[in-house]
Write a structure and sequence with these properties.
By secondary structure, the protein is α/β, with parallel strands linked by helices. The protein has a single domain, classed as Maf protein (Alpha-Beta Complex). Helices cover about 30% and strands about 20% of the residues. A 7-stranded mixed sheet has the order 2-1-3-4-5-6-7. Helix 5 (about 185-190) crosses helix 6 (about 195-205). The protein is globular, with a radius of gyration of 17 Å. The N and C termini lie close together (about 10 Å).
Amino acid sequence: MNTRIVLASGNQGKLRELQQLLQPLDVELVSQGDLGIDDAEETGLTFIENAILKARHASDISGLPALADDSGLAVDALGGAPGIYSARFSSATDGAEPTGDRATRDTANNRKLLTLLDGVPDRNRTAQFHCVLVYLRHAADPVPIVCHGVWQGRILLSPTGEGGFGYDPLFHVPSMGCSSAQLSAAQKNVISHRAVAMQALLQQLPARL
């Protein structure tokens, strides 16, 4: 019998990627949105803090084990921004809540990133995608599994590719010679920040199910 795990996110892109990455295990991953659970308030200052907050929130309300993914883009020329504010970067400076659907917000975030990097030479446009995965057996689990993956790249001058989500069209992957949005799901699930974190999680998760 498979184990049902709630994903502490309503992001369908993340859900699809994580479902594919979890295929080696006999688990059913269900989005918190499908269970009627609202997003947790992300009051942490790091990816790890926010991932734990989200996992605990989803597990507490659902009564299920929870998996949380807190990820984002860190651009060196911007001092690590957008960082934990990656998903709401376009509205982060004025404290406003993000508006519109996810595709609209992605477009606004990408536009703001390009504006801030206007005039920055290619050699200084280095960036990293970070992904922190946290697994809790229950809301009060004192020993969560915490895994961190990093993906090195640089920011392009304009969006390229139709796949992926978020900043994928702007994230150039040197080892592949293309943007993250031009990679197939199979390619991404081998080399991405989320794939690296998930491989670490898969080594520990079977003993905790």
